[in-house]
Write a structure and sequence with these properties.
By secondary structure, the chain is α/β, with parallel strands linked by helices. The chain folds into 2 domains: 289 residues, Aminopeptidase (3-Layer(aba) Sandwich), CATH 3.40.630; 174 residues, Glucose Oxidase, domain 1 (3-Layer(bba) Sandwich). The protein contains 14 helices and 21 strands. It has an 8-stranded mixed β-sheet, with helices on both faces. The protein has an 8-stranded mixed β-sheet with strand order 3-2-11-5-6-9-10-4, with helices on one face. Strand 7 and strand 8 form a beta hairpin. The longest helix has 21 residues. It is globular, with a radius of gyration of 25 Å. The relative contact order is 0.18.
Length: 565
């Protein structure tokens, strides 16, 4: 019975994921150029540069925190590298972000009841300690706003533990995971929208629970800002030597510097907390050397370049990933892998001498880790935007706020973009694609994916997925897609951690992803029609195209140019 069920499940996966399709009608523009797929595969598998790109982004350029000089250097390197590939109009487009930050040095050790070296890193945008500090450790255990109110006045100048003791259990599952047929079948089945949020490659969260977490975190931040501790220490959510570190909101204009905030290995944190909870005096000595940066008056950049189109050159097919990262590692899987794959895909097309009908444009975004800021700024400048909500519903961050009922204002350029494809779920193979409930693209993607089935691309799903830059484009009515990727070690080991380094990037997976992406870009750029779109909401309005400008008199004042570099 088990064997029969397994065979039936495999048959169902084949039927649901990518059924056989009849030959498209001549002249429809939907036929797949198998000769070009062969050429893409030959270049991508036999002459790949994807790991060279990955090595430069990670080993050489290092971490790329938004607003930092390190990210600016990565912007300039990607611009110059895309130019060397033969792409045109490679440039940087700016938007205002706030201040950058850089970590110079950090050490921390326990000095009582015994001496022990500890491993911790500060959150981004926390200030330094202005020399070494030493003091007794206390533990703040409040979990509600009401409990915080009862603790007022107790933590000024103290070194404060702010996490509970974590339960560390032996690992029962491998950190490395790939989708099997059953998992892909489950993904292929549509999921009715509700109160749950599925993070890419990770667990499902209840929106009410997330809202409560954000509300308490905001209350805790306000409480500690008023208390003015010497330092806070919290436990990493990982174990076994993994340190997951992100940042604060202090990059925003006018934000106070705040206080040093460290994230410590869970096992070491637990030792401190257990001792303090048993009323054993604990002393810690620590030093954080960090500084704020403001290289371009708070402006940051997206890198943009193009392969020009031919007869449909005013229409655009876009691809992107985010160039920024956190600082514990070198951002190898989040998202240097996506950037390297996107750059390799356009390199493949360029070296093959492809003359696409539509212009193929690559965008490498900054500010993704702070809420898709770079892609949102680009979309606002070129394609349109929704009004901001008058209030922050439930204290959710901007990228999680409901937008469906907000007025949508579109620019003329929005009608000229055919599709946006995003890569940002780690280093794994591309196993399929999320259509974001766009039923009309399903048969197209099935036909495009059919020559790629033998390298693992099998599943087309009408599900939505969230958490990546495709949402910025989808929000203004552009067909925008994120691929289904093998999780590999993404959520278990590398995502925002000290292990997000080159060694965790998988060469064969990234080569496969580059071939799949180049094929999709080619097909989207060459077909007769743009990709079908979901219907616009009734609150959408299109700006009028500007009238042709009259020839200026010599004395006329020229308008200011948009910021770009």
């Amino acid at each position: 019975m088990t064997c029969i069920r397994s065979l039936a499940a495999l048959a169902l996966v084949a039927a649901v994921s990518m059924p056989a399709l009849s030959q498209a009608a001549p002249g429809s523009g939907n036929q797949v150029d198998l000769q070009m797929v062969t050429r893409i595969r030959q270049e991508g598998f036999h002459h790949s540069k994807v790991m060279e790109i990955e090595a430069d982004l990670t080993d050489r350029l290092g971490a790329r925190l938004t607003g930092s000089g390190d990210l600016k250097r990565a912007n300039e390197w990607t611009r110059d590298q895309l130019t060397s590939f033969g792409l045109q109009n490679a440039h940087l487009e700016s938007y205002h972000f706030g201040r950058g930050w850089a970590l110079d040095n950090v050490y921390i050790r326990m000095t009582a009841p015994s001496v022990a070296m500890l491993y911790a890193l500060p959150k981004a945008w926390t200030p330094g300690t202005n020399g070494a500090i030493k003091g007794e450790v206390v533990h703040l255990k409040a979990t509600t706003a009401e409990e915080l109110a009862a603790e007022k006045g107790k933590y000024a100048g103290k070194i404060v533990l702010i996490s509970p003791v974590s339960e560390i259990t032996p690992q029962t599952e491998a950190a490395n995971r790939r989708y099997d047929d059953a998992a892909l079948l489950a993904i292929s089945e549509y999921q009715i929208p509700g109160v749950r949020l599925r993070m890419p490659g990770g667990p499902v969260f209840n929106m009410d629970d997330l809202r409560r977490r954000f509300q308490f975190q905001r209350a805790l931040t306000r409480f500690l800002e008023e208390e003015k501790p010497a330092m806070t220490i919290e436990a990493s959510h990982g174990d076994a030597g993994l340190l997951f570190v992100q940042g604060t909101q202090a990059y925003k204009d006018g934000s106070p510097d705040g206080y040093p905030q460290l994230v410590m290995l869970a096992e070491q944190y637990n030792r401190l907390a257990r001792l303090v909870d048993r009323n054993v005096p604990v002393e810690v000595e620590a030093s954080v050397q960090a500084h704020f940066e403001n290289p371009d008056n708070g402006d940051v950049y997206n890198t943009v370049a193009e392969i020009p189109g031919t007869d449909k050159q005013d229409e655009i097919v876009m691809v992107g990933g985010h160039l920024d990262s956190w600082h514990a590692g070198t951002g190898a899987t989040d998202d240097a892998a996506g950037v390297a794959v996107a750059m390799e895909a356009v390199r493949i097309l360029q070296v093959l001498g492809v003359k696409p009908r539509r212009t193929i444009r690559i965008g490498l975004w900054s500010g993704e880790e702070q809420g898709l800021l770079g892609s949102r700024a680009y979309v606002t400048a070129h394609f349109g935007k929704r009004d901001e909500p008058a209030e922050r519903p439930g204290d959710l961050p901007s990228y999680m706020r409901p937008q469906e009922n907000l007025p949508l204002h579109l620019k003329p350029e929005q009608a000229k973009i055919s599709a946006y494809f995003n890569i940002d779920n780690g280093t794994g193979k591309l196993r399929g694609i999320y259509t974001q409930e766009n039923s009309a693209v399903v048969p197209l993607f099935q036909s495009w994916g059919r020559p790629l089935r033998d390298i693992g691309f099998t599943t087309i799903t009408q599900r939505n997925t969230s958490g990546t830059d495709h949402l910025s484009f989808d929000a203004v009515g552009i067909p925008a897609f994120q691929f289904i990727q093998d999780p590999v070690e993404y959520m278990s080991r590398t995502h925002h951690s000290n292990m997000d380094v080159y060694d965790r990037a998988q060469r064969e997976d990234m080569m496969q992803a580059s071939v799949v992406l180049a094929s999709f870009l080619y097909n989207a750029a060459m077909r007769d029609e743009m990709l079908p779109r979901k219907p616009l909401p009734p609150n959408a309005s299109m700006e009028s195209a500007p009238a042709p400008a009259a020839k200026e008199a010599p004395s006329a004042k020229k308008p200011a140019k948009a910021k770009s570099r």
